[in-house]
Amino acid sequence: RYCLLSRGLGDVYKRQIYDRFIAQTPTASEVAAREAVDEAASGWWVEPAQAVPGRALLFIHGGGYGLGHASAYVGLASQLAARTRVPVFVLEYPLAPEAVLPAARDLALRTLAGLAARFGAVAVAGDSAGGGLSLATVLEAARQGIAVSSLVAFSPWTDLSLSGASAQELAVGDPLLDVGYLRASAAAYLGGAPATDPRGSPLFDADLRRLPPTLVQVGSDEVLRDDSRRLSEAAGQAGAQVELEEWQGMHHVFQLNTRELASARKALDRAAEFVSRHWST
Prior knowledge:
36% of the residues lie in helices and 16% in strands. The protein is an alpha/beta fold. It has an eight-stranded mixed β-sheet with strand order 1-2-4-3-5-6-7-8, sandwiched between helices. Strand 3 (55-60), helix 2 and strand 4 form a beta-alpha-beta unit. The N and C termini lie far apart (40 Å).
């Protein structure tokens, strides 16, 4: 559980525990994974059999910006690859505190640009901190003229200042996220930048109208619930096409639990349908 990671463990050990936890998501059948070792960005390709040509999905993983490796997310990425029938690239981005804002976002942006040049259409997805990083990346890509077909964010962390009401109201009952851990993670990632810097907190980006068609899924019982609510409301008011799904009784990034939860499988089905509906080519 995330909250256990804030209790006196070393960074290396925390990362090992986190990866083992995330890697419990089973790999979908008829999907192959291979490490990208000779490309501009490190990561893992997760590819379904008989993939639809000319399309790809960039997946940006969570972990509070200081935890998580691409290899641990192969299972979740495979669930998306199997459902969308397109290859998924899971990006290995630099973690905090070794790397601070905007290193991860800049790498994600370069990776997205490379995929857009290689494929006819690219979608983006991310969970938790990776959901926030996905939003920040796509917004900057739009300003630079890089097209993204759609964006899916699972429980995105959109406000590193943790100013949403749910960060206080649900702090005691959330089984996964500890607010103290989140505050420490935000400080490590920001590296001295203000918590409202839109490169780290896309909720405060003035260009939310530039978002592509976006689906946000969040659990009703998590401290980051209001990050999804406020982002979706602000983007909608700005003119973006955003759909918010709040799953009752669900925890943070419940989509990982495909083996245990029918809701996780259904949510991924809906996410894949959304991506498939919005391909630009």
